[in-house]
Amino acid sequence: MFRKRLPPEEERKVKANDREYNEKFQYASNCIVTSKYNIVTFLPVNLFEQFQEVANTYFLFLLILQLIPQISSLSWFTTIVPLALVLSITAVKDATDDYFRHKSDNQVNNRESQVLIRGSLQNEKWMNVRVGDIIKLENNQFVAADVLLLSTSEPHGLCYIETAELDGETNMKVRQSISVTAELCDPNHLASFDGEVMCEPPNNKLDRFCGTLYWREKKYPLTNQNMLLRGCVLRNTEACYGLVIFAGPDTKLMQNSGRTKFKRTSIDRLMNTLVLWIFGFLVCMGGILAVGNAIWEKEVGFLFQSFLPWDPPVDNFLFSAFLSFWSYVIILNTVVPISLYVSVEVIRLGHSYFINWDQQMFCSQCNTAAEARTTTLNEELGQVEYIFSDKTGTLTQNIMTFNKCSINGQSYGELTGPLGIQPTRLNFTPLNPLADPNFCFYDEKLLESVKVGDSHTHEFFRLLSLCHTVMSEEKSEGELVYKAQSPDEGALVTAARNFGFVFRSRTPGTITTTEMGQTVTYSLLAILDFNNIRKRMSVIVRNPEGRIRLYCKGADTVLVERLQPCNQELISITSDHLNEYAADGLRTLALAYRDLSEEEWEAWSESHRFADKATDCREDRLAATYDKIEQEMLLLGATAIEDKLQEGVPETIALLSLANIKIWVLTGDKQETAVNIGYSCKMLTDDMTEVIIISGHTVQSVRHELRRARERMLALSRAREEGKGIEGWAEAGFMRNGCKEGQAGDGTADGGGEGARKPSQCPPIPPIPSNLMDSISGEFALVISGHSLAHALEPDMEEEFLSTACACKAVICCRVTPLQKAQVVELIKKHKKAVTLAVGDGANDVSMIKSAHIGVGISGQEGIQAVLASDYSFAQFRFLQRLLLVHGRWSYLRMCRFLCYFFYKNFAFTMVHFWFGFFCGFSAQTVYDQFFITLYNIVYTSLPVLAMGMFDQDVPDQRSLEYPKLYEPGQLNLLFNKREFFICITQGIYTSVVLFFVPYAVLSDATQSNGVPLADYQSFAVTTATALVIVVSVQIALDTGFWTVFNHVFVWGSLGSFFTIMFALHSQTLFRNLPNQFHFVGSAQNTLLQPVVWLTIALATAICIVPVLAFRFLKLDLKPQLSDTVRYTQLVRQKRRKPAGRSMGGVWRGTGSVSEGRLGARGGSRRSGYAFAHQEGFGELITSGKNMRLSSLGLASFASRHSTGWIDTLRRKKNNPTPPGTSGENSPALSIVSGSVPPLSNSSSVLGGSQETPIEEEAVTAPAQNTDSDLAVCKQTSTSAVSEAAKPHGSAQANAAGVSTSIRGRPHVKDSSGGWAHSLGTVQVSHCLYWTE
């Protein structure tokens, strides 16, 4: 009946086109299941999960007790209805969530794929694909399973894939089939393929595959380069065939996906503990009253046996006490009524709808609203301490734009002019038919420089059109489509294309371009390929005139060392430009060239051939050969590409950082790219004390680097505190492998591979106690690579990694797998006990989203997998600030106030029964009638507290964003914890004492106006009940901080409903119709007509409320909270009628100063903005011709057909032969290299344009006035930090401690159309206030 669980695989065997053979191993099908329930298992599994809540089990136990008539004084109906309601609401919510998971699974499982069955291709659903099947994939299709690539429509069995769903990278990657199967392109040939694959078992290693193909009595090794993984998308390849190796849950994508977890908030977990405590308290109270019952029955009760005997089951005082114990447990159970859980679910549902309805979280561009996909985690949004974010698609749009450039010491792309004037985008199309209409540039100076034929400018764009690995496809004349391996290269080649240097086509030995309207074909002599160690690539070409030139582009840090020394002044100017570009967060590359003589080329070519054919150390020999020729180059300039951030990202990160939220970026991208984005979004700044890089390849090296990093952090921290300078304080902020620059093993291009340091060079460092790390001052950042992180996450290393990372302000993890993302999140959850939030947009983020306490999905360009796995979703990262600082904080505040008040009112209500027990012979008699007990939590007090839990707020949403420090009480769990709980129940017990003993003392001797005593049971019950309802209503009026129409209606309406229902229950009409149920006719009217009763109620109310008012007044005066001061300053501002234009909705522009603030902290050191999302291997692929169709070899002749008439027209229109920026007004550095650069082509002039750049405006500073002289107030400006995040250049110097300033800035963010989008507007001064104890 039950299938035996299979043992874990040690080796997988797959035979092509043989399902019977493969089914013997019972491999998993390709059907995936991410849902938790099905129709059969839903009810039992869901009930089992719900009864794991202690409260649900507690109420079920009470329900069972109430079914026993001998001990129950209340009807079982009062418990079963609310319990069933709570279980039903939760079940419906869980069923809805799981329905969407089923829907997503069905959508994926029912996708169709072409499967080769019995010699013909048939459409099959993905879930019916089996291991061993051969499937056909077409361009832009998702890969259905992990398949071995057999053949493709491209030459040499190549295909291109995009792996964004796996690792977040959108640049294309190349996969190649093994040569023996590359010719099997026909279904008939593939049907006869019977090869057998033996490979490793299923695992989560995305970058590794090891196997062997056995076919025709030969063996062929298989690697990851031969595999297409599920989740990849086929790009730029018409079709390919693959053999399914892993299917469904065995695929690497699913192996990296975490399981769906049942998430509960910290308040839920605390409530479980409190319910246990309350139950223990209940047992103690029941035990005390049961002992009292036993004593009373033994000493006094026997006197009544003659006329009031015990009920039949009871035959002695001990059994009477036993029954009395359970009766009191039932009566006193209202300290935690089940209506509490009903109200909590209603409040959470309301908070979810507020998120869904928030128009400020609606993205009009993609017509997407924010969505709360769960209702159980809203208050947890107000307690987040760690945010784990993906990079590509989450922080960035993954759109590369050519933004600025520096050519021969002249910077282009900086726009200056009157503020508010929108620059005009240049239109290239009329004068350059081959221009890309989507290209944007605005700077007129660069256009003029190209028009007049400036040799440096032409050489600059000629380099961009030649030095790359882009493939060009010309479907029709003039319609060019570039297939770039990385978006960086695509942006650079497109820029050259629009400025008249159009890359048209290539063959293994030639590159054809159209330069200023003339077709030029260069001989491609060599490609010196890019890799992460070289950080540069070069091409060597021969022009039609026979001159040989090397063109190189790469990181400025490596190119500067290889330039001719005569270029120092130009190098200095260009370096300043690079520094400015890097400060703007742009990705920079330096460009250089070198002329080669025929003899130099021949000699180098011979040494290159020798290195290429070497059997040992081939890579090292080639690198040395490349390095030999890439010397004595002349600097041409630099490029600056913007990896466009999503709108509002820097401002959002700045605000969240001010709220003491730590942001970690976990990305699959390479280190340089991730670091560059870190600077762009202001996670990393040049004012940081140090940016530490961990890149060891072994456990020992990683441990050593982490310990050395902590040692250095402590040293810098001590030096900062002591005010003494130490060696290295003015160094550039990067620490390579824990050693200073220049030490062996730093991992630079000159020093060999990373992690190559010998132990003797960096002696072992003892571990530093974690408590010392808490005392670190200064701002540090940590960058760690994926291979280092794998070692850092090992059990004996994780605490060292954690102590180092948590001492840093920012952490960036590069080249991480989806599973490593989840492991980092779990590490923080395990050791820091902090609330975590993960945000991502792709399938590679799903495991991280599931692991975190809160998962947020960005509905971006990488599908909807992240959204489907998330708890909340919206369109842009910037909405995160509103989700946390507004909705999250409000939800936490409301829930805490709701719980505090709810426990207070129920202890005040219930404990009256306890005191009454000492005066009623411990008989389990209730003070109130049964109708009041039933309606108290349902009608009389439910709606006011519900309104407070739904609508209350301490400060408006604008102030929540303006004062991020308001968020910290949630992180510290200050508003509802065990201490606050005990305060609430103490107040409730005090209220119950007053409500019982004051009426008891007054009414015991009081008489009516006619002389009849008032000391009867029902008069006492009416008086106590009325006083209780009035006191709790006044209390909630005091607790409510934000009054709405609903609050007024519910508070005063509940009071009115109490009197209406009470008079109705004591009316003559009900007594006549149901005399057995309503005994006390007229008691309410008679009691409440007595003045002494109202005086008693007023006295009890005053005794209950006045101490609370006095305590709150003193607390507000002596130790106010930040929210109290914010409200006070808001009132002061309203009275003073603040000037117009200081609201949150204004325009916010950053300052345009140079980056003196950034460099000041470093003593003039400079950070490289180099980042290039490129991979090694494409150069060799191009020169071998493997990635080119046979027809492409003849495309060079096609490029020459284009007309050149437009260039002649442009030449006739030229009036000024000297372009701006090339006259004598320029820097003297320009004359060093200008004037004698021989062009490789005789073409001249083309159209150009300029791109929009930030409009600069100085910050306006004004003194802020203290709103309360009695407070010790340190006013800091969150505005200054947020405007710092939005600055295009530099950063403001920090204010001295205690100085009261306010900065009004206007941050700007580029929107997708090139304009400036308004994100936060003009922000009010933010006050960070603190008080000494």
UniProtKB/TrEMBL annotation:
- Which GO molecular function annotations are given, in alphabetical order? ATP binding; ATP hydrolysis activity; magnesium ion binding; phosphatidylcholine flippase activity
Extract the SUPFAM superfamilies matched here. Calcium ATPase, transduction domain A (SSF81653), Calcium ATPase, transmembrane domain M (SSF81665), HAD-like (SSF56784), Metal cation-transporting ATPase, ATP-binding domain N (SSF81660)
Q: Cite the EC number.
A: 7.6.2.1
Keywords, comma-separated and alphabetical: ATP-binding, Magnesium, Membrane, Metal-binding, Nucleotide-binding, Translocase, Transmembrane, Transmembrane helix
Does Oxidoreductase count among this protein's keywords?
no
What cofactor does this one take? Mg(2+)
Recorded catalytic activity of this chain's protein: ATP + H2O + phospholipidSide 1 = ADP + phosphate + phospholipidSide 2
Q: How does it sit in the bilayer?
A: Multi-pass membrane protein
Which regions are flagged for Gly residues bias? 744-754
The source's domain of life comes to Eukaryota
Q: Where in the cell is it found?
A: Membrane
Residue ranges of the region described as Disordered: 742-768, 1208-1253, 1282-1314
According to the UniProt entry, which residue ranges have a biased composition of type Polar residues?
A: 1292-1303
Which parts of the sequence belong to the P-type ATPase C-terminal domain? 867-1120
| GO cellular component annotations of the record | membrane
Domain named P-type ATPase N-terminal is located at: 14-80
> Which annotated residues bind Mg(2+)?
390, 392, 841, 845
Instruction: State the protein's name.
Output: Phospholipid-transporting ATPase
- Give the originating organism: Oryzias latipes
The record lists the lineage as: Eukaryota, Metazoa, Chordata, Craniata, Vertebrata
